[in-house]
Fold this sequence. Notes:
By secondary structure, the chain is an all-alpha fold.
Amino acid sequence: MRKGVSLRVAVVLFQVPYCTLKYRRNITKTQKALSVEIKAKSSGHFTNLSDGKEKYLVASSKDLAGRAFGCTSKQICRTAFLLANLNFINNPWDKDKMCAG
């Protein structure tokens, strides 16, 4: 936000809900004070795989696609399930189907 623009004026200018803009402003202030990056809340379910494991899964899928071995969503779900089991990550996925939800 530009200096000198109040939160209420910014809400009108950018057509963003007041609570959202206030929340984002407070996160930014906290990051500057602590000099660390804070992840904003995300909606939906918690992830079972860490960011690193998810990035590995995406990179592997892209690599296979680049080699003309495209993956279906079912194959990626199965790979995610196997990745979680090989790394001893607890998950709520169906063990009979061996597929991530």
